[in-house]
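Can anyone check this?
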Amino acid sequence: MIPKPIINSATNRRYQTRIDALAALAAASDWTGIAAFEVKGVNTYAKVVQRYRDALLAASLTLNPAPKNPTKRPFLRNRAILTLQSQGLRRRDSGAGGNMEVKQ
């Protein structure tokens, strides 16, 4: 799994609790909960939380290949694809299994 960021700043400990909550959802494989996790704010710490959430969603696609019926998880798959595209990465399917390979 993706290592969670550590925020040591005493002033911004509330962001560490959000990161811990995302890590707990990932440990429970609750990908819809992670996708629904709302990140508010535009400061550096909020961006760290958002990048961690998006990285978990992208990792969920590699851990859990797409089902035979792609309409079962369109929200998670589309969000991860958009996340990769926003980071300047491309996605390539490797066949019918739906596994994802990330290319720069």
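Reply from J.R.: I decoded it. The longest helix spans residues 44-63.
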